Amino acid sequence: MAKTSLDAFKEVHTESKIDTNRKVRVGIIGCGWIAGSHMDAYLNQPDVELVAGADLIPGKAKAFFEKYGLTDVKTDYASHKEMLDDESLQLDAVSICTYNRQHAEPAIYALKKGVNVMLEKPFTVTTEEAIEVMRAEKESGKVLSIGFQPRLDANMQMIKKIVDSGELGKIYYIQTGGGRRRGIPTPFGTTFIEDETAGLGALGDIGCYSLDMVLNAIGYPKPLTVSGYKSAFFGVDPNYVGYVNCGHPEYAEKFAVDDFAAAFVRLEGDIILDFRIAWAMNMDTPGDTIILGTKGGLRIPSTECWNGSVGGPMKIYHEVCGQQTVTEIPIINMGGPGLFERKIRTFLDAVKNGTPAPVPSSQIIYNQAIIDGIAKSAALGREIEIEIPEI
């Protein structure tokens, strides 16, 4: 391999200076457990003022902010609309940390109010909801960024660098996914497993990360068709070990989403995507992620508990001077701020500088369309075409 090709795989670290003279006034909508990660990240930013919070449960927002020692934050709102209607807040941005089925409505309302939005993943539950959010985004001209922090991992970025370098040639097949042997997220109550709150299970929680890992690497080609399958054998079983350990076998009666899903997706550019994801399965992993190209193949090791990370050194299988060779790409230890903090920082920079969203809806709409397409295809029991209207 030529030296110039290897140089393309080098990690370059840059530091940006934060202008603390201009503060970003931020509110949080939805004060559950994921909001804590947003709060931790915001508190580490020297140019942020946390000014408001809202939650559907009375008193929850107030208790949430007081837990972090913030007693002068306005939280006496019955809904996100009341908070966003309060012009005295002079909000610049909001983090939307609600359960899945409540992603679209506050995002649309915030954008229409001229407020920038950091929206937790998944984008929405359905493609139709995501389209409505994007229409509000387009009309507002504000920043809408989706919460895919694994994309900011240097190892994830390396995958894209390898593809962009041309080392793999034309990409024609991708196998991806991830799983947990026993990992239904019931320690956080039932909002992840009930249809009225979650709408999607493993598909929306961790499946979206698997898709972003590979779709971002290959430039997010448009999905054309999908043949999907989903099941819930573990989630509806009161003897599931997670329910037993937390003392809530009754959760099985509430489980109404997927704990496993798989799909065969055709993408533009004559690329095939073979996908599988699991919250629970009788296996340690559903397999490594594999990207096959005409010049080389890339193996990305899986993890036993999938959370959107690379499980070990990646390997490129290719030919050098007519000899079959394997090139190992060492794991990059980034150091510095964690991925969640980087997610918040890149969002704030986009808000302050008027630059594009770090994780734009124009890409994630394809991610969402695949997830929604898998659910719809599974319900119909056949392959379906994916249609995304112009926005």
Please describe what this structure looks like.
With 391 residues, this protein is α/β, with parallel strands linked by helices. It folds into two domains: 24-149 and 340-359, 3-Layer(aba) Sandwich (Rossmann fold), CATH 3.40.50.720; 150-336 and 368-378, Dihydrodipicolinate Reductase, domain 2, CATH 3.30.360. 32% of the residues lie in helices and 22% in strands. It contains twelve helices and 14 strands. It has helices spanning 3-7, 33-43, 60-67, 80-85, 104-112, 127-140, 154-165, 202-217, 241-246, 251-254, 339-353, 361-380, and strands spanning 24-29, 48-54, 93-96, 116-120, 144-147, 171-179, 223-231, 260-267, 271-278, 289-293, 296-300, 314-320, 323-329, 384-385. The strands form two sheets. Strands 13-12-11-10-6-9-8-7-14 form a nine-stranded mixed beta sheet, with helices on one face. It has a five-stranded parallel beta sheet with strand order 2-1-3-4-5, sandwiched between helices. Helix 5 links the parallel strand 3 (93-96) and strand 4. Helix 2 (33-43) crosses helix 11 (339-353). Residues 1-13 have low confidence and may be disordered.
What order do the strands of the largest sheet run in, or round the barrel if closed? 13-12-11-10-6-9-8-7-14
Rg, rounded, reads: 21 Å
Domain module count: 2
The biggest beta sheet reads: 9 strands, mixed
Give the beta-strand count.
14
Query: Given this structure, which CATH class of the largest domain is correct?
Result: Alpha Beta
Low-pLDDT segments: 1-13
Number of helical stretches of at least 4 residues: 12
CATH fold field value of the largest domain: Dihydrodipicolinate Reductase, domain 2
Q: Provide the CATH superfamily of the largest domain.
A: Dihydrodipicolinate Reductase, domain 2
- Tell me the span between the first and last alpha carbons: 43 Å
Q: What is the averaged pLDDT score? A: 95
Order of helices and strands: HEHEHHEHEHEHEHEHHEEEEEEHHE
In percent, how helical is the residue content? 25-40%
Strand composition percent: 15-25%
Q: What does the overall shape look like?
A: globular
CATH architecture of the largest domain: 2-Layer Sandwich
